[in-house]
Design goal:
By secondary structure, the chain is an all-alpha fold. The chain folds into 2 domains: 209 residues, Growth Hormone, Chain: A (Up-down Bundle), CATH 1.20.1250.20; 220 residues, MFS general substrate transporter like domains (Growth Hormone, Chain: A, Up-down Bundle), CATH 1.20.1250. It is built from 23 helices and no strands. InterPro entries: GLUT, MFS_dom, MFS_sugar_transport-like, MFS_trans_sf, Sugar/inositol_transpt, Sugar_transporter_CS. It is a multi-pass membrane protein.
Length: 477
């Protein structure tokens, strides 16, 4: 790695990044993945519980219904949390919002942890809903804080940290959910409760870090506080140039009234970046990554791997996701955002089309079965290089301070809505269409490749002012 790339990264900035990202995106990833391994155990528990209540045997369809509500209500919470991002970010600040959000983690742990003792599966559903709101808020607040505290040339790399922690926490939840560890009849409530650990870490670590200097100056008008925060983050008092840039943005923001939701859709200079932000969020969720991650074990079983081998292969996919997201952290400042998005989605399009073909023949042909394993791995690698991480921080880069909270709210709510659509719609589609379901994903990816090529600008190393002026040009209108 060149020295220039790391310039500006010091111990304090690294600590602030860890404090903000570990506590927040960990909730997002861990609670996405944690329900996967103990699914059968919890379903059996729900089934027995319902039978004890009614005195009649429980139908599997009822259990499946309760279980899918418990899993998918996490996304409903996420939509609500996402749409509150703007309000919370403005009212309590980025850091303040992240800290307050941990109250919801505590509530979740109380509900999910006591559910088994209280003999109530409703408590698990409530817990999943609350942690969904928490994750939705985190998905907006954390990337916003991260992009506002990082120097321009590190913005992409620091923004990628959010996705990196998501992939790590999904992997952690899969490992902890193994039968040998916490995936047992007695231990699964503990597995759900471990989500409190990163929250405790954040509550201890984040108060030691400053609030976002941009928020202090641009939203609160506190010049001295902003300068102090910036000097702390940069580890030097030589922050004159960066402060001047922020003051210039402050002056231009003062002339513009606070951006409302309506304004985002009406003003062309804001509408274009909003459409781009929304489309990139849709692209990320509708790419089929959830379907591939969710069904990786099933795909591996189809390829004639036994249960343990299939589980281990799924872990390998998770581990590869972590490694490749780390690689994208380095690439994003070298290759740029647009290049990585195009490369990722184009590759995924070819990969998904081939996967649809191979899965169709997986039952009869060993070669096709093994090819589908390789294709699943390749899909995850391609997703992690760009489509996985870039959408989260691209929104923060496309908008200036006055529009950022409102725009982030819209984009995050869209992301969770798309996530919800995929998680609800995939199973019925898959039962109706079999392996052909991946043809739908391939078509969607092809569309997004075209859209990104035409419309998404490159934001690498550009200041807020340069990015805003791009959208004011006629070519984008």
């Amino acid at each position: 790695m060149s020295q220039g790339w790391l310039q500006g990264l010091n111990g304090r900035l690294a600590f602030a990044i860890a404090a903000a990202a570990l506590g927040s995106s960990f909730q997002h990833g861990y609670n996405t993945g944690v329900v996967n391994a103990p699914q059968q155990l919890i379903e059996d528990w729900i089934s027995n519980l319902k039978q004890n209540r009614t005195g009649e045997p429980t139908k599997q369809s009822e259990v499946t219904m309760i279980w899918s509500i418990a899993v998918s209500i996490f996304c409903v919470g996420g939509m609500i949390g996402g749409s509150l991002v703007g309000t919370v970010a403005d009212r309590f600040g980025r850091k303040g919002g992240l800290l307050l959000n941990n109250v919801l983690v505590l509530a979740t742990v109380i509900f999910e942890g006591c559910a088994k003792t209280a003999k109530s599966y409703e408590m698990i559903i409530i817990g999943r809903f609350i942690i969904g709101i928490n994750a939705g808020l985190n998905a907006g607040l954390a990337p916003m804080y991260l992009s506002e505290i990082s120097p321009i040339h590190l913005r992409g790399a620091v923004g990628t940290v959010y996705q990196l922690v998501i992939t790590m926490s999904i992997l952690v939840s899969q490992i902890l959910g193994l039968e040998q560890i916490l995936g047992t009849e007695d231990q699964w409530p503990l597995l759900l409760c471990l989500t409190i650990v990163p929250a405790i870490f954040q509550v201890v670590a984040l108060p030691l870090c400053p609030e976002s200097p941009k928020y202090l100056l641009l939203s609160k008008g506190k010049d001295m506080d902003a300068q102090r925060a910036l000097a702390w983050l940069r580890g030097t008092i030589e922050v004159h140039d960066e402060m001047e840039e922020m003051r210039a943005e402050y002056e231009s923001v003062k002339l513009v009234p606070k951006v409302t939701l309506k304004e985002l859709f009406v003003n062309p200079a804001l509408r274009i970046p909003l459409i781009i932000a929304i489309m990139v969020m849709f692209a990320q969720q509708l790419s089929g990554i959830n379907a591939v991650m969710f069904f990786s074990t099933k795909i591996f079983t189809m390829a004639q791997l036994d249960k343990t081998a299939a589980q281990n292969a799924t872990m390998a996919v998770g581990a590869m996701n972590v490694v490749m997201t780390f690689v994208s952290l380095i690439l994003v400042e070298k290759a740029g955002r647009k290049t990585l998005l195009l490369a990722g989605f184009s590759g995924m399009f070819i990969d998904t089309a081939l996967l649809a073909i191979c899965l169709a023949f997986a039952d009869t042909s060993r070669a096709a079965a093994y090819s589908s394993i390789v294709l699943v791995m390749t899909f995850v690698i391609l997703f992690a290089t760009g489509p996985g991480s870039i959408p989260w921080f691209l929104v923060s880069e496309l908008f200036n301070q006055s529009a950022r909270p409102a725009a982030t709210s819209v984009a995050i709510a869209v992301n969770w809505t798309a996530n919800f659509i995929v998680s609800i719609g995939f199973l019925p589609l898959q039962e109706a269409l079999g392996a052909h379901v991946f043809i739908i994903f391939a078509t969607i990816q092809a569309f997004f490749v075209f859209f990104i090529y035409k419309k998404v600008p490159e934001t690498k190393n550009k200041t807020m002012e340069e990015i805003s002026s791009m959208f004011r040009q006629i070519s984008y209108q």
